[in-house]
């Protein structure tokens, strides 16, 4: 049976790491266990894991710092999906994690079956298509082009005016979702459900933070914009010039 991919588990609690290892192997993933953060970047380059499970409270470096460092790596490593698996369960901790570009957040103690479900959900959203795919495969790619913006959800690539914009996977997913439904207004709760897939109590602020980051990175454009409807939510608007 073929492996579903490698999962890098960074956790200094042996009991937690062992439970995660057993459930990953049972689900046909290849776990790579690290008790510290100092080897994470090198391991990502050498092993090319499909996903990183990352504790926040590590003995040598915080998971927050590691997440930020991963997101600053060269392509394609900077888009490696990350799930925080941590005892820090306050809304402010979750918000900080999502703002740094984490793809999901699970609080200890956790249900190992839920962890596996979240891993599968994140990988479904972030799996990339090789550049040498056939023409028939290319025809089915989730590609959106509106004005000068092109969003390729299969390649996780966004260009504006032909220039690639460096976005996190979650920012790309949010942008793709909004542009797929032009002029439709979504509440923050809607976007958490559609884009993040799991309920995130007290987490509507992370939507605001991601929209703010998108606007900053994408800049202002004459033909489209992400519109705020105060007290309601957001929409992607195509500007019609007379």
UniProtKB/TrEMBL annotation:
Species annotation: Paenibacillus chondroitinus
Keyword Glycoprotein: no
Keyword Transit peptide: no
SUPFAM superfamilies to which the protein is assigned, alphabetical: C-terminal effector domain of the bipartite response regulators, CheY-like
Source domain of life: Bacteria
Lineage: Bacteria, Bacillati, Bacillota, Bacilli, Bacillales
Record-linked SMART domains: REC (SM00448), Trans_reg_C (SM00862)
DNA-binding region (UniProt annotation): 141-238
Protein name, as recorded: Response regulator transcription factor
Domain Response regulatory positions: 6-123
Record-annotated OmpR/PhoB-type domain positions: 141-238
A Pfam family: Trans_reg_C
UniProt modified residues of type 4-aspartylphosphate: 55
Keywords: DNA-binding, Phosphoprotein, Transcription, Transcription regulation, Two-component regulatory system
InterPro entries: CheY-like_superfamily (IPR011006), OmpR/PhoB-type_DNA-bd (IPR001867), Sig_transdc_resp-reg_C-effctor (IPR016032), Sig_transdc_resp-reg_receiver (IPR001789), WalR-like (IPR039420), WH-like_DNA-bd_sf (IPR036388)
């Amino acid at each position: 049976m073929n492996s579903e991919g490698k999962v890098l588990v960074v956790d200094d609690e042996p009991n937690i790491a062992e439970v995660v290892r057993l459930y990953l192997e049972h689900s046909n993933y290849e776990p790579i266990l690290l008790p510290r953060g100092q080897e994470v970047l090198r391991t990502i380059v050498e092993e090319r894991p499909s996903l990183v499970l990352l504790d926040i409270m590590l003995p040598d470096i915080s998971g927050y710092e590691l997440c930020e460092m991963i997101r600053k790596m060269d392509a394609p490593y900077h888009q490696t999906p990350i799930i925080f698996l941590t005892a820090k369960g306050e809304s402010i901790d979750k918000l900080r994690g999502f703002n740094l570009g984490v793809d999901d957040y699970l609080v200890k103690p956790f249900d190992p079956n839920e962890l596996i479900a979240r891993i599968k959900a994140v990988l479904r959203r972030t799996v990339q298509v090789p550049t040498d795919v056939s023409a028939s495969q290319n025809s089915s790619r989730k590609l959106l082009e509106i004005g000068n913006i092109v969003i390729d959800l299969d390649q996780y690539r966004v260009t504006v005016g032909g220039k690639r914009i460096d976005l996190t996977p979650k920012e790309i997913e949010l942008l793709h979702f909004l542009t797929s439904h032009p002029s439709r207004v979504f509440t923050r709760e809607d976007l958490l459900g559609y884009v993040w897939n799991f309920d995130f109590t007290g987490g509507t602020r992370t939507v605001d933070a991601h929209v703010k980051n998108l606007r900053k990175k994408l800049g202002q454009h004459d033909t489209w914009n992400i519109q705020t409807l105060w007290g309601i939510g957001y929409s992607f608007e195509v500007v019609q010039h007379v």
